[in-house]
Amino acid sequence: MADTVREIERKYEAGDSAGAPPLPDLSGVAGVATVAAQEPAELDAVYYDTADRRLATAGITLRRRTGGTDAGWHLKLPVAPGTRDEIRAPLSPDVPRALAALVRSRTRHARLTPLVRIVSRREVRLLLDEHGGVLAEASADEVTADRLADGGRTAHWTEFELELGKDTDPGFLDTVEPHLRAAGLRPSKAPSKLSRALAETETETEPAPREKRKRRPAKGGKPTAGEHVLAYVRAQAEAVVTGDLDVRRDVDDSVHQMRVATRRLRSAFRTFGKVLDREVTDPIGAELKWLAGELGVDRDREVLSARLRERVDEVPDTLVLGPVRARLRRWAAARHAGARKRLLSVLDSERYLTLLDALDALLADPPLLPAADAPRKAIAKAVLRDYRRLARRVEHALATEAGPGRDTALHEARKAAKRVRYAAEAAKPALGKPAKRFARRMKSVQSLLGEHQDSVMAREALRALAIQAHAAGESTYTLGLLHGREEALAAAYERELPDVWRKASAKRHRAALRA
Known about the structure:
Layout: E1 3-14, E2 34-37, E3 41-49, H1 54-57, E4 61-66, E5 72-80, E6 83-89, H2 97-102, H3 104-107, E7 113-128, E8 134-147, E9 154-164, H4 172-182, E10 185-187, H5 193-200, H6 225-248, H7 254-271, H8 278-314, H9 324-336, H10 339-347, H11 350-364, H12 377-399, H13 404-431, H14 433-471, H15 477-504, H16 507-514
Antiparallel strand pairs: 1-6, 1-9, 1-10, 2-7, 3-4, 3-7, 4-5, 5-6, 7-8, 8-9
Helix pairs in contact: 6-7, 6-11, 6-13, 7-8, 7-13, 8-9, 8-10, 8-11, 12-13, 13-14, 14-15, 14-16
């Protein structure tokens, strides 16, 4: 079983002074009652990566380390500057399957092989408060790094680290830093030992790390429509890959966020079809639709189950007849059974990995059309095309008689509103505040229509639950009551829509995009 530890630390190196200074005396730091010296330790770590260094390019490190108090396999994931999550697994000869799976969206079919060996002789001082609690750990490492391939070059340096204690306020690092600077230390230029080792043992003949190509700005320094679109597509593709890792770790809301990234990508391919050739993007869009569907199985269940539980809790106890809550729990559990296992199998499937490869190939050699060289106004035209599509759907829905037909029409309008919102969000770097405001207004329409659709889905679920309850001889009174309340909510949303649409669709908002 892998354990996760949040690391907040700062790295330092000697300044311009000759030689490496010893670990500074930090007994005078405010809040430090005692400085406790630890026994020196020798840490021997072998870092693994693909041949084209896909993990290093993403700021991820995977190592097998012996020595010290935390020997084992460590997967370090960037969270923020100076902050990483370290996922640990016990020592074993080969890369643990659980850790390899976490980075599969990066590595795909490439092998993880030894890249660098780093041996550190470590001196450690614990900075303790008056109660003996660890405020921080200060350490000095005499480092030897050996490249295990590409010529086997070696590098040596001394490195200093200040790692925050588990329950210490991050501001304590700022308190200590002046003392380190006074001792001749400066913040390290390298974010990690591995990055410095790679830089200092690099040879001219080794393969360059894997990077996504970027187009140069057009003449005059202003990005073209193509450059804006590619930047957005690149960001969403990265969000899918990053989201994969979060989903595998079962991070809260990760499935939803990954699903949103897939939808934004697919929407961008359709919105900007005059910039990126749809003969190339449509097949990828179809696979993104498949992936969003797989991600949505459990997400939709969670949303609907939460809504129904809330609705039951709103009903007075005197009106809750029969085992309604128990039936809801059984219904939710039955729908949830095996959902996570199925989703993980999707993320390990050849179909999914092929989709990720297709996104990489598209970004490496983008299928740009002549309109890609157009100025930023081409972005506004694409957003307004989607807006006109939404306007037609809203008008159709409002003109449709109340009932299942209108429910369907409103659902189609909701999907169109989401596409316009995503298009406007993609346009923000090119169009600025007008696009930001337009996206916010389209979100108001989408949100209202989303509430309506949730009500439709809730009514369908309540009807199915009532049929099951009736067959079991249970009272269906409460389920019928909830169904009626959902009908009333849907009718209220429909009455609210004309005013929300009028405010969001004002001509001046569209004119601002064209300015």
